[in-house]
TrEMBL record:
Transmembrane segments: none
Matching Pfam families: Response_reg (PF00072)
Cleaved signal peptide residues: none
Modified residues (4-aspartylphosphate): D54
Domain of life: Bacteria
Stated name of the protein: Response regulator receiver protein
SMART domains: REC
UniProt keyword Repressor, yes or no: no
Occurrences of domain Response regulatory (ranges): 5-120
Gene Ontology biological process terms from the UniProt entry: phosphorelay signal transduction system
SUPFAM superfamilies: CheY-like
Length: 170
């Protein structure tokens, strides 16, 4: 979890201070924004891994912020926190894949910590998958260029039992 950057967005700085106390033992760098506009500025300047945003804020709501973040910073994993029972927009955001999880205020410390750890693991898995896809594309491109240069190089002849037949003369 080293070098993990978390951006916490809430209009009430005391909520951030409470969050900071809860996660103080985790090896993470914390950033705070009081609204969506501030959050976007921080996202431009820092390589944020995890965004945790309150849903109800003046200006851009948490769901709206996360929608913008998903477009502009697709590798950022997002979590919504809310103290209200207005679940329609949150459920929509979760179902559309924009939000990894939502947490109710006041949060349970264990649930909060596990959610953060799971979100970071999810981000690492996402990065690994992208890296593997990139490597696969490179290998496919190499195979394609070899096939153009040496037609048939990628085909394998097998006998009835499935053993590879080597053509040492050709």
């Amino acid at each position: 979890m080293n070098d993990v950057k978390i951006l916490f967005v809430d209009e009430e700085e005391k909520v951030f201070n409470s969050f900071k106390r809860e996660v103080s033992f985790l090896p993470v760098d914390l950033y705070y924004a009081g609204n969506g506009e501030e959050a976007l500025k921080i996202l431009e300047e820092q390589n944020i891994d995890l965004l945790i945003s309150d849903e109800r804020m003046t200006g851009i709501t948490g769901s709206e912020l996360i929608s913008i973040v998903r477009e502009r910073f697709p590798m950022v994993v997002s979590i919504i926190i809310t103290g209200y029972a207005d679940f329609d927009s949150i459920i929509k955001a979760v179902n559309s894949g924009q939000v990894c999880k939502y947490i109710l205020k006041p949060w349970n410390k264990l649930e909060l910590i596990m959610t953060i750890k799971n979100a970071i693991e999810y981000k690492r898995d996402k990065e690994l998958i992208l890296n593997l896809k990139s490597q696969l594309r490179e290998k496919e491109d190499l195979l394609s260029s070899l096939e153009k240069r040496y037609p048939g190089i990628s085909s394998v002849k097998k006998d009835k039992e499935g053993n590879v037949i080597l053509d040492l003369e050709g």
